[in-house]
Specification:
The complex is a heterotrimer of chains A (about 170), B (about 90) and C (about 100). Chain A has five helices and three strands. With about 170 residues, chain A is mainly alpha-helical. Chain A has two domains: about 45 residues; about 100 residues, no CATH class. A three-stranded antiparallel beta sheet of chain A has the order 1-3-2, covered by helices on one side. In chain A, a hairpin with a 2-residue loop joins strand 2 and strand 3. Chain A is globular. Chain B has about 90 residues and is mainly α. Chain B has one domain. Chain C has about 100 residues and is mainly alpha-helical. Chain C has one domain. In chain C, helix 1 packs antiparallel against helix 2 and helix 2 packs antiparallel against helix 3. The longest helix of chain C has about 30 residues. Chain C is elongated. The N and C termini of chain C lie far apart (about 45 Å). Classes of the chains: A mainly alpha (about 170), B mainly alpha (about 90), C mainly alpha (about 100). Chains B and C meet through helix 1, helix 2 and helix 3 of B and helix 1, helix 2 and helix 3 of C.
């Protein structure tokens, strides 16, 4: 069972690297001789450092629409504030303890927070993420928890679900 | 379309210049670090527009390399060009 | 028709770049300026790339444009974090209303 999983993940990686090569070389056929070698080298390089948290590629793919929507909203939100003469911002520093384990999941989460509406990661220490919030009246905490659960899914980590359906 | 691309590229260049005003003015050292972020995105957009306008598609590869290096250079810039000392106050 | 959509995307992208610059100039401290720069410029670049992708001569070019956008996003998020953390470590207090 586990072996089947690792074969699958190897296949997915080969497909991804092949896609990148195809894109880099503008689809020239002659380049695949070198491309094949490059893909093998990339596979070898991708093993270091060994990751203890395998990425669930399907979940990562399903995360894309959510990410695109949120980052677009983030851009619209900040653009709206920058254009308004009154400059409607009310910033605040907030500390949130992460329910994700240290390593890749926390780093991924930290990077995503900066691209979402109204929040910016400013410190990550002992599983506590300090965020700078652009408008403390917003529902940033809600967004944060929703994002956290999505990240947990990508790394196949169980997190205790909170009642995030309710508006805070 | 060519003229349109060039006009947009010039517009973005003006944005870059206006942003540089803030970067040079500061007031804090932290504000100067924003240059790294500003160039990362705007320069890539300008390169891509020029690639389309001039039809020299190699410029796309320049943009790609720029994007690739942006991460490394910006991190190095922020880490090395910013001495560790209290700045204090909200500037 | 495609040209029209292209123009729409590109103009919208330019507006986001303008918003990023406005935010950079108008916002009161380094943290809020980072918000403006990181988020607005990334959407600006995303829309610019969408507009250019419509004009692309092949799918591999579309792929390359998307790859570029992804790299810039990744760099942007890391740099924003580094600058914000650096400012916090050096005791730059966030502006308060």
């Amino acid at each position: 069972m586990n072996q089947k999983k690792s074969v699958n993940s190897l296949l997915i990686k080969v497909v991804i690297f092949a896609l990148v090569w195809w894109v880099l070389t503008d689809g020239h056929l002659q380049s695949w001789l070198i491309g094949g070698v490059a893909i093998v080298l990339a596979l070898w390089a991708a093993k270091y450092p060994p990751s203890d948290r395998p990425v669930h590629f399907l979940k990562l793919f399903l995360f894309l629409p959510f990410f695109l929507k949120q980052s677009l909203l983030g851009g619209v939100d900040v653009a709206r504030r920058a254009f308004q003469p009154k400059l409607p911002i009310d910033p605040l520093l907030v500390e949130c303890s992460l329910r994700l384990p240290p390593g890749a999941p926390q780093v991924f989460m930290t990077n995503m927070v900066s691209l979402l509406p109204g929040t910016l990661s400013a410190r990550l220490e002992n599983s506590v993420l300090t965020m700078h919030v652009l408008d403390q009246q917003g529902h940033y905490m809600n967004d944060f928890r929703v994002l956290e659960e999505k990240v947990a899914e990508i790394f196949s980590i169980p997190v205790a679900s909170t009642e995030i359906g309710e508006r805070l | 379309m060519q003229t349109f691309y060039i006009a947009l590229a010039l517009f973005l260049l003006a944005n870059l210049a206006a942003g540089m005003w803030r970067v040079l003015r500061g007031p804090g050292v932290a504000d100067r670090m924003l240059a790294a972020q500003l160039f990362g995105t705007t320069a890539v957009a300008i390169l891509l527009l020029l690639a389309e306008a001039s039809g020299s598609h190699a410029l796309r590869d320049v943009a790609l390399v720029f994007a690739l290096l942006a991460a490394v250079t910006a991190v190095a810039f922020v880490k090395r060009a910013w001495p560790m000392q209290k700045e204090g106050g909200s500037d | 028709m495609i040209d029209l959509f292209s123009v729409l995307f590109l103009v919208a992208g330019a507006l986001f770049f303008l918003a990023g610059t406005l935010g950079l100039i108008r916002f009161p401290d380094v943290y809020t300026r980072l918000h403006a720069l990181t988020k607005a410029d990334n959407v600006g670049l995303g829309l610019t790339i969408a507009g250019l992708a419509l004009q692309a001569e092949s799918f591999s070019v579309v792929g390359k444009l998307i790859l570029i956008w992804g790299l810039v996003l990744l760099a942007g998020a890391s740099v924003a974090f580094l600058i914000a953390r650096g400012a916090l470590q050096r005791g730059v207090l966030p502006w308060k209303r």
